[in-house]
Design goal:
elongated, mainly beta, 56% strand, four-stranded antiparallel β-sheet, seven-stranded mixed β-sheet, single chain
């Protein structure tokens, strides 16, 4: 079964906005952090933003003041509002969910399939 569903990617011009959304299955319980990573061609995957179950956010320096991460624990969703997009933001964006599971209460990661964000000048 599909456990993470991403949406909201697309093609925009510089200065415009996009909102990414990620929904985790209701069967996924005890979620710790939810976040977004991105990977551009020839570059390593990097953290964009993450948010804890207590709604405490953390942002990469290159998106501070432009992007806002939010989550709805009741709906098992996380969103990334991206304003003032720049061509260098072009990348595949991946949803990440970290949660506890199993008899030993270990932390596990789920990853979305990725959604393309392209910003033209």
């Amino acid at each position: 079964q599909v456990q993470l569903v991403e949406s909201g990617g697309g093609l925009v011009q510089a200065g415009e906005s996009l909102k990414l959304s990620c929904a985790a299955s209701e069967t996924i319980r005890s979620i710790n952090t939810m976040g977004w990573y991105r990977q551009a061609p020839g570059k390593q995957r990097e953290l964009v933003a993450a948010i804890t179950s207590g709604y405490s956010p953390n942002y990469a320096d290159f998106v501070k003041g432009r992007f806002t991460i939010s989550r709805d624990n009741a709906k098992n969703t996380v969103h990334l509002q991206m304003n003032g997009l720049k061509p260098e933001d072009t990348a595949v964006y991946y949803c990440n969910v970290r949660y506890y599971r199993g008899a030993y209460y270990g932390l596990y990661d789920l990853w979305g399939q990725g959604t393309q964000v392209t910003v033209s000048s």
